[in-house]
Write a structure and sequence with these properties.
By secondary structure, this protein is α/β, with parallel strands linked by helices. It has one domain (7-192). The protein has seven helices and eight strands. An eight-stranded mixed beta sheet has the order 1-3-2-8-7-6-5-4, sandwiched between helices. β6 (138-148), α7 and β7 form a beta-alpha-beta unit. The radius of gyration is 16 Å and the shape is globular.
Amino acid sequence: MNTGVPARSYALERLYLDQHRDFVIDTIPALLAWLTPSSRPSQPFVFEVSVSTGEQAGLECLRLSWDIEALAAQDPTLLDRARRLRQGTSAQREHVVELAAYGLALVAVSVWMPGRRIVAWAKHSTPDMLLDPTPGALRGVEVAGRSRGGLPSLRTALARKRAALDVMLDVAEAHVSLWCGSPRVALHVQVKP
């Protein structure tokens, strides 16, 4: 990671305070399973994030860490669910990257859009996570995750998602939050207005 890049630290257990529990609880086991090949990872996990939202623009490092006991206090089944996802014995095994990306997008909203909260999941439409579900004036975050491919893969996804959101007249504000596991890079971009 580039040492001259500003860094932001975020403790994952804080997500339960920054966002509604219902939107957090299913994402954290997947996030832990995706980031950690074993149950005793070395922390922090650092993502290089290109941010362009509102008045913020530039490259930053997100230093993600957690206290496993604090997380387990919020969700007593967390460790077992993360283990099952890691081992592939969960029905959600094919959705680990997707769910982990949702968790990271919740972190991104908390870090780069302070005070804003996800209030609903969209059903079969874009954007995935809604900040405001007002009909005709939706505000939200479209999310995707990739296991590998780095910035080229994320830029391709951004172009596709931006094009889709641009033509949606019922979306007043849209952000795209894209995450890659190897290398650990991300894009968090406001694409509308």
